[in-house]
TrEMBL record:
Subcellular location: Cytoplasm; Nucleus
Name listed for the protein in its UniProt record: Elongator complex protein 1
Tagged with keyword Transport: no
Residue intervals of the ELP1 alpha-solenoid domain: 650-853
Family: Belongs to the ELP1/IKA1 family.
Provenance organism: Lepraria finkii
Chain positions covered by the region annotation Disordered: 1107-1143, 1217-1240
Pathway: tRNA modification; 5-methoxycarbonylmethyl-2-thiouridine-tRNA biosynthesis
C-alpha cells in the first residue's frame, strides 16, 4: 500500500571525451567514487570523486590500462569497490589485473598498485558483504577466493560433474498443475509431475556473461555461468568453497543473478515466448515463484534485451536495469508492484545497459550511471492517501503499480492487496499520485497522476458505497520535457484553492509548477530554486515557524502578503520550507526561517504494558500505518506480509467520543460507545453539567427506547473520566476544559441525579418512553422499585394493553422475588399477582395466600402483609390501629418494638406505662442496667431502679433512689458498704471515701481512702472540718509515708527499665543496619560457605517459614496455588511470639519500643499523683522526703524525654514534618510531662 516518492535527485554529466564506466559509494563521506574509461579509443582510466551537491568531479588518480588479452577490444571494469576505512579503491579488470588505488598512501606504499593478475582473464568478481573475501571467476572456468590482502585461499574448477550435486524433486510450488480443479480433472495424473520439463535452452538474448552474488550474511556464494555452451547453471558454494547445490534446468535463463540480502531467494531473469520474467530460486536450486516484467515485443527488441538485477540493502526493493532505464519493484502479499521507472541522463540506449549502485547503508538511496553521466537519487516509502480530517476521511489510498493505479476507499471496502476497489489503467507508468480533499458538491475527489512526460486527472464520485470507477477529466503534457531531456518529474501534491503543485528536478535546480485542473490549462512555472530541493512537498501541517520572502530588491515580505499553498521538509538541514502564491509578482525566491520548534503534544506515552493499559496494543513487528479515519475511529495498518488490518485504537475512539460530546452529538457518541465497548458512563462523566442540562437533547437524538435503556442500565457511581479513561485525556488545556464542564456537586449520587433528570425529561413522553421511565426508577441506587411498580399500577387505568409488557420489562431488570415483595408492600394484590405470574413461583403457593389476604379488612390485611414481609414496625402500627392492645403488647415483646410502641402511645398514659414496664424488664434482662434503672425511675419504681443502678455501678443514682423509697437505715448502710467496696476494687478511692464520709459518717476510713488515692488535701480538709486532730499522726502521716514508699519504688523501677531497654534497642538497630540478612534469620548457616550443588531457590512446595523479610510480614513469597500459606494457628503462634518479645527474636525490638511507650504513658499518668504527694509531704513538714520524691520524678522524666527521639524515630520524623508544614504539633510522637511543684 506504499509508494516510492523521490526526495532527492542530483545530476552530473560526464567530462567531455570520457565515458563513465563504474561507480562506488564512499559511505564515510557520503560521496560517490566514479571511474572513467578505459574505452576502445582511450586506454586511460581515471578515478574521480563526486560529493553531494557539487557540480564538478574531484580527481583522485589516473593511469593507462591497456588490455592484455587480444580477444578483448579494451579492458573492462568488472568490479569496483571502495573501502572507506582505509580510503582505498579496488578495481577488478576483465583483462586479469587487480588494481588498488590509495588516496592517502602510507610510507613505502604506491598510490596505484597492481596487486595481482590472472593470465586467463577474469569473467566476474564480487566482494563479500563483510569485505573480507573476494570471489573471482576466471575465463578458464575456475573460482578463486582471495582475502583482503589478496592472498589466494581457495581454487575451485567448474566441471560437468557439478550438475550431479543436486537431485531436484519439484513439488510444483505455485504451479497451476498443483491446484485443485475438481475430482474428474486429471484424476489419474500425479500433480507433482510437470507437463513439460525444461532442458535449460539458452536464450538468444543471452550475452554469455558470468555473474557472482553473495548472500547477505556472506555464508554462501552463487555463480551463474554457462555450462558446455548448452545451459545456464547456478552453482551455490559455501564460504569454504564447498559446492552446496546447483540449479534445475530453466529454459531462457540469462546471466542476471542477485541473491536477496535476506537470504531466502535468488533472483534471475528468464526470456521465454517473447516475454521476460524475474524467476526465483531457493538455495537448493529449485524454482520458487516468478513475476512478469510486463514488456511488450517492441520493448524487448528496443531496450529490454539486456537486463540486470540489484537488491537494496534491506531486501525491500528489486531494481531491474535495462539499456536506458531502471525499474524499481516492491513486493506485498506475494505480488510485485512496479513503483518507479527512472531513465538515464541522456535517455539513450546503451549496449551494456545502465548501472545502478545501491547505498550500502541507506535502503532507498542509489546512483544510476551511464556513459553520459551519473544521477544520485533518494526515495522514501510513503502512503498516497486522501484527506484524514472529518468529514472527508474516506480513507482513500492510491497504490502505484506501473500503468495500473489501484484505488480503495477504506471506509467503504477494506480490500486486501493486491486487489483494489477500483483499478485505473494509465497510458504510461506513474511517478507519483496526489488526491484532493472531498468536495461537498458533487461529493467527488480529484486524483492527479504524475507521469514522466505529463499529468493526468481523474474524478471519483463518493456519493454512495457502490461508487463508479474514476473517470478521466483531462491530461496535461509538459512542453519543457522534450526540450530538456534531463528534467525529471519527482513529486506532485495537492495545494489549496483547487490546484495541484508538482516538483521537477533539473540540472539547474528544482522547479515548482502549478497544475490548475479547473482551468484545464497546461502547467505554468511558479517558482525556481537555485539548488536541488531535498524533501517532500505536502499540504500543510501547522507550524510555529515564521515565513519570509526575499524578492530581487531584498525587501522582506511577511506572511500577511502571502497565500499559503504547500509546505515541505528539507532533510539536508532539518528545516521546513514553504511554497506560497505571492501577491507581489516581483518575488522569485522563498526562504523559510525556523524560529522555534512547534509545541510538543504532552500526551503521556504509555508504558509497554498492553495487559494492563488499554492504550497499548500488541501488533505484529514491522506493521506500518496506512491511513486513519477519525470519523469511524479506524486505523488501517499493513502487516509485513502485506495483508491489511483495521483496528480501533482506544485513544482514537475516546478522542472521537469526547469531541462528539463537546459538540453535543450524543447519538454518535453513544453508538461509538456501544460499538467499541466503551463504558457509557463517559457520556455523562466527561462533561457532567452539560449532560444534565441536555438530557432532552440526548433523548431526541438517541430516540430508540432500547438504546436509552442500555445507557441507564450501565450507570454506576464511578467517574470513569478520572479513573478508567484518565490516561487518554490529552493535554492540560483539555483537562481544564473538562473541569469547567464538570459539576461542583459531588455529594449527591451520580446515578440518582441522572435518573431523576431522565424522569423529569420523560414526564411528557410516557406514551412513547414509558419503558424508559420504569428503567430510570429501577436503575437508581438503591433501586426505587416501589416507584416503578406504582407507575405500572397507574397504567392499568390509562393504557391496560401496556401493563403486561411493563411488568415483563421490570421483571427483566430486577429480581422478580424482590418485586413480588415490593408489590405486596404497596398493598396492591392485583399488581402482586401480575408479578407472581412472571416468576417461577408455584401458583399453589401464592394464590391461596393472596385469596386469604383479599378476604381480610384493610387494616388487618396491611398488618398481615407487613408481618409477612418482616416489616415489623409498620405491622405494629397497623396493629395499634386495630385497638388490640393485648396483641400489641405480645407483638412488641416478640419483636422488641418498644420504641415504636412508646411513640404510638405517647398520649395514652396508662398504655404508655405498661409498654414502659415491658421495656424496663427487657433492658434489665439483657444487662442494660443503666437504661433499665432510668425506665424504672420513670415509673416511680425506686426499689427496682436502685438495684439496676447498683448493678450498673452508678453509686450516686443508686443511693439517690434508695433514699426515695425510703430504704431503712440498716439496709441503706449495707448498700453503701457494698458500693464502697466495689469502688475500692476499681481503684476509685475518691468516690469510696465520699460514700464513707456522707452515708456512713466514718471520717477515719474516708481520710484513709483519700490518702490511698493521693488526695491528701481532701483528707486534711475533712479531718480539720470534723476536728479529728488525732488522725494526723495515725492516718495522714502514715498515708504519706506509704505513698512515698510505693511512688519511690515505682519510679526506681521505671528508671531501671529505661536504662536496660534503651541501650538494647540501640544495639538491635545497629545489628540490623550492619547485617540485615542475619538480623532477619536469612543467613541460616551463620555466614558459612554453602555448597554449590545445593539449590536455595524456593519452590511452591517449600515448607520453609518464608525468605528474608517475608517471613515476618505474613506475606508469602509466591503466588502459586500450591504455595504454603499461614494458617490461623500459625498466626496465633506468631502473635504470641510478638507479644512475648523473646530476647534474640526478630520481635524483640518491637516489644522493647512498645514497652518504653507504655512506661512513658505511665509516667505521664502518675505526674499529678506525684505532685499531690510532694505537696502533702511539704504541708506535713517532710521536706527531705518531698525533695527525694521530686528528684526521682525529675530524673525519670528527663530519661524519658531523652530517649523519645532515639526510640521513636519514625514518629519523631512525622511530627517534625507536620510542624514544618504548619499542621500544629499533633503527630505520632510521645510527649513527656513536666514536674511543676518546684520544691528546691
Amino acid at each position: 500500500m506504499r509508494n516510492l516518492r523521490n526526495t532527492h535527485r542530483s545530476l552530473l554529466k560526464s567530462t567531455p571525451g570520457l565515458e563513465l564506466t563504474a561507480s562506488a559509494w564512499d559511505v564515510a563521506n557520503d560521496s560517490v567514487i566514479c571511474a572513467f574509461g578505459p574505452t576502445k579509443g582511450n586506454v586511460l582510466l581515471e578515478l574521480k570523486r563526486w560529493k553531494k551537491y557539487d557540480q564538478t568531479f574531484q580527481p583522485i588518480a589516473s593511469w593507462d590500462a591497456p588490455c592484455p588479452l587480444p580477444d578483448l577490444e579494451c579492458d573492462k571494469i568488472l568490479n569496483f569497490h571502495y573501502f572507506s576505512d582505509s580510503l582505498t579503491a579496488c578495481l577488478v579488470l576483465a583483462g586479469g589485473d587487480i588494481v588498488v588505488v590509495r588516496e592517502e598512501p602510507q610510507t613505502g606504499e604506491e598510490k596505484i598498485e597492481i596487486l595481482g593478475s590472472v593470465d586467463a582473464g577474469i569473467s566476474a568478481a564480487a566482494w563479500s558483504p563483510d569485505e573480507e573475501l573476494l570471489a573471482i571467476t576466471t575465463r578458464a572456468d575456475t573460482l578463486l577466493y582471495m582475502t583482503r590482502d589478496f592472498e589466494n585461499v581457495i581454487d575451485v574448477t567448474f566441471t560437468s560433474d557439478d550438475l550431479k550435486a543436486s537431485s531436484h524433486v519439484s513439488v510444483g510450488w505455485g504451479k497451476a498443475e498443483t491446484q485443485f480443479k475438481g475430482k474428474k480433472a486429471r484424476a489419474l495424473r500425479d500433480p507433482t509431475m510437470p507437463e513439460t520439463v525444461d532442458e535449460g535452452i539458452l536464450s538468444p538474448h543471452d550475452t554469455k556473461e558470468t555473474t557472482i552474488s553473495w548472500r547477505g550474511d556472506g555464508a554462501f556464494l552463487a555463480v551463474n555461468s554457462i555450462e558446455s555452451d548448452s545451459r545456464r547453471v547456478i552453482r551455490v558454494y559455501s564460504r569454504e568453497g564447498i559446492l552446496d547445490s546447483v540449479s534445475e534446468p530453466v529454459d531462457g535463463l540469462v546471466g542476471a543473478l542477485r541473491w536477496r540480502p535476506a537470504g531466502n531467494l535468488l533472483a534471475g531473469v528468464q526470456y521465454l515466448n517473447e516475454s521476460a520474467k524475474v524467476v526465483f530460486f531457493e538455495r537448493n536450486g529449485l524454482r520458487h515463484g516468478q513475476f512478469e516484467l510486463r514488456l511488450s515485443r517492441e520493448d524487448l527488441q528496443e531496450w529490454g534485451s539486456t537486463i540486470s538485477l540489484k537488491w537494496n540493502v534491506d531486501s525491500s526493493v528489486l531494481a531491474v536495469c535495462y539499456k536506458d532505464r531502471v525499474q524499481l519493484w516492491t513486493m506485498g502479499n506475494y505480488h510485485y508492484y512496479l513503483k518507479q521507472e527512472i531513465f538515464s541522463v541522456s535517455r539513450e540506449l546503451y549496449e551494456h545497459g545502465v548501472s545502478l549502485r545501491w547505498h550500502p547503508e541507506k535502503p532507498l538511496h542509489f546512483t544510476l550511471s551511464s556513459i553520459a553521466g551519473i544521477q544520485r537519487l533518494a526515495y522514501t516509502s510513503t502512503v498516497s492517501s486522501g484527506a484524514t480530517s472529518p468529514p472527508n476521511d474516506y480513507g482513500i489510498v492510491a497504490v502505484i503499480d506501473g500503468k495500473c493505479l489501484k484505488l480503495t476507499a477504506m471506509r467503504f471496502a477494506n480490500v486486501p492487496p493486491p486487489i483494489a476497489q477500483h483499478e485505473v489503467t494509465l497510458e504510461s507508468n506513474a511517478v507519483d499520485v496526489a488526491i484532493s480533499p472531498v468536495t461537498q458538491d458533487p461529493n467527488t475527489v480529484t486524483i492527479a497522476v504524475l507521469h514522466d512526460d505529463g499529468c493526468s486527472f481523474y474524478s471519483w464520485s463518493l456519493e454512495s458505497r457502490a461508487q463508479k470507477p474514476p473517470s478521466p477529466v483531462w491530461a496535461s503534457g509538459f512542453s519543457t520535457r522534450k526540450a530538456l531531456p534531463e528534467m525529471m518529474n519527482a513529486q506532485i501534491a495537492y495545494g489549496t484553492n483547487g490546484f495541484f503543485v508538482h516538483l521537477s528536478q533539473e540540472p539547474s535546480g528544482s522547479k515548482v509548477w502549478i497544475l490548475d485542473e479547473d482551468s484545464n490549462a497546461p502547467s505554468r512555472h511558479f517558482c525556481h530554486f537555485g539548488k536541488t530541493v531535498e524533501g517532500i512537498i505536502t499540504n500543510g501541517p501547522n507550524s510555529a515557524s515564521t515565513t519570509y520572502l526575499m524578492p530581487d530588491q531584498n525587501e522582506i515580505i511577511g506572511p500577511e502578503d502571502l497565500e499559503v499553498e504547500i509546505y515541505g521538509y528539507n532533510e539536508r538541514n532539518d528545516s521546513v520550507f514553504g511554497l506560497f502564491r505571492p501577491l507581489n509578482p516581483a518575488v522569485d525566491a522563498i526562504r523559510w526561517e525556523k524560529e522555534s520548534e512547534p509545541p510538543a503534544n504532552d500526551l503521556e506515552i504509555p508504558p509497554d504494558t498492553p495487559e494492563s493499559d488499554e492504550r497499548c496494543r500488541i501488533i505484529e513487528r514491522g506493521a506500518k500505518l496506512i491511513t486513519v479515519m477519525p470519523s469511524t475511529f479506524a486505523l488501517v495498518i499493513q502487516m509485513p506480509r502485506g495483508n491489511l488490518e483495521t483496528i480501533y485504537p482506544r485513544a482514537l475512539v475516546l478522542a472521537g467520543i469526547r469531541d462528539n460530546i463537546h459538540k453535543k452529538k450524543y447519538k454518535k457518541a453513544f453508538l461509538a460507545c456501544r460499538n467499541q465497548r466503551v463504558d457509557m458512563n463517559i457520556l455523562h462523566d466527561h462533561a457532567s453539567q452539560q449532560f444534565i442540562s441536555n438530557v432532552e437533547a440526548f433523548i431526541d437524538q438517541v430516540q430508540k427506547v432500547e438504546h436509552i435503556d442500555l445507557f441507564l442500565s450501565q450507570l454506576r457511581e464511578e467517574d470513569v473520566s478520572k479513573t478508567m479513561y484518565r490516561e487518554t485525556l490529552g493535554n492540560h488545556a483539555d483537562r481544564a476544559e473538562i473541569q469547567s464542564l464538570e459539576t461542583s456537586d459531588n455529594k449527591a449520587s451520580k446515578v440518582n441525579q441522572i435518573c431523576d433528570a431522565f424522569l423529569n425529561a420523560l414526564k411528557s413522553r410516557t406514551s412513547t418512553h414509558f419503558q424508559n421511565v420504569i428503567t430510570a426508577h429501577v436503575c437508581k441506587s438503591p433501586p426505587d422499585l416501589d416507584a416503578g411498580l406504582s407507575q405500572i399500577a397507574g397504567l392499568r387505568s390509562k393504557n391496560p394493553d401496556l401493563v403486561d409488557s411493563a411488568i415483563e420489562h421490570i421483571c427483566f431488570l430486577a429480581d422478580v422475588n424482590r418485586l413480588y415483595d415490593n408489590a405486596l408492600g404497596l398493598y396492591d394484590l392485583e399488581l402482586a399477582l401480575l408479578v407472581a405470574q412472571q416468576s417461577q413461583k408455584d401458583p399453589k403457593e401464592y394464590l391461596p395466600f393472596l385469596q386469604n389476604l383479599q378476604g381480610m379488612p384493610a387494616s388487618r390485611r396491611q398488618y398481615s402483609i407487613d408481618n409477612h414481609l418482616s416489616r415489623f414496625p409498620k405491622a405494629l402500627r397497623h396493629l395499634c390501629e386495630l385497638s388490640a392492645f393485648d396483641e400489641v403488647k405480645s407483638y412488641t415483646v416478640k419483636h422488641s418494638l418498644y420504641s415504636e410502641a412508646l411513640e404510638f402511645y405517647h398520649y395514652q398514659e396508662e398504655k404508655l406505662k405498661e409498654i414502659m414496664r415491658l421495656h424496663a424488664d427487657y433492658l434489665q434482662t439483657n444487662g442494660n442496667f443503666k437504661d433499665a434503672g432510668i425506665a424504672y425511675e420513670f415509673l416511680n419504681d425506686y426499689t427496682a431502679a436502685s438495684e439496676s443502678f447498683r448493678q450498673a455501678h452508678l453509686w450516686k443514682e443508686s443511693l439517690s433512689c434508695a433514699t426515695l423509697i425510703p430504704l431503712p437505715q440498716p439496709q441503706l448502710h449495707s448498700l453503701a458498704h457494698s458500693l464502697a467496696e466495689a469502688l475500692i476494687e476499681s481503684k476509685d478511692h475518691f468516690s469510696a471515701a465520699t460514700i464513707h464520709l456522707d452515708y456512713l459518717s466514718d471520717v477515719a476510713t474516708a481520710a484513709r481512702l483519700f490518702c490511698k488515692g493521693y488526695y491528701f488535701a481532701d483528707a486534711l480538709r475533712i479531718i480539720g472540718f470534723h476536728q479529728r486532730s488525732d488522725l494526723f499522726d495515725s492516718v495522714i502521716d502514715v498515708g504519706l509515708v506509704e505513698g512515698m514508699a510505693s511512688m519511690t519504688e515505682l519510679l526506681a523501677e521505671c528508671r531501671r527499665q529505661i536504662n536496660a531497654q534503651v541501650p538494647r534497642v540501640r544495639e538491635l538497630r545497629t545489628k540490623k543496619a550492619e547485617d540485615p540478612l542475619a538480623f532477619f534469620d536469612g543467613d541460616v548457616n551463620g555466614g558459612a560457605d554453602i555448597p554449590d550443588n545445593v539449590s536455595l531457590a524456593p519452590t511452591d512446595a517449600s515448607t520453609t517459614g518464608g525468605s528474608l523479610f517475608t517471613r515476618y510480614t505474613n506475606r508469602t513469597g509466591t503466588v502459586g496455588t500450591n504455595a504454603t500459606r499461614r494458617t490461623s494457628k500459625n498466626r496465633r503462634r506468631e502473635e504470641r511470639k510478638r507479644a512475648r518479645g523473646k530476647k534474640g527474636s526478630v520481635y524483640e525490638e518491637e516489644y522493647l519500643v512498645n514497652s518504653v511507650g507504655r512506661l512513658i504513658d505511665r509516667v505521664n499518668f502518675v505526674n499529678n499523683e506525684v505532685e499531690r504527694l510532694v505537696i502533702g509531704l511539704m504541708r506535713r513538714g517532710m521536706r527531705e522526703r518531698a525533695r527525694a520524691v521530686e528528684n526521682a520524678m525529675v530524673e525519670v522524666v528527663e530519661l524519658c524525654r531523652g530517649c523519645v527521639g532515639e526510640v521513636f524515630q519514625d514518629a519523631v520524623k512525622k511530627t517534625t514534618a507536620e510542624k514544618n508544614e504548619g499542621q500544629g504539633e499533633g503527630g505520632g510522637g510521645r510527649r513527656v510531662g513536666r514536674m511543676s511543684c518546684g520544691i528546691r
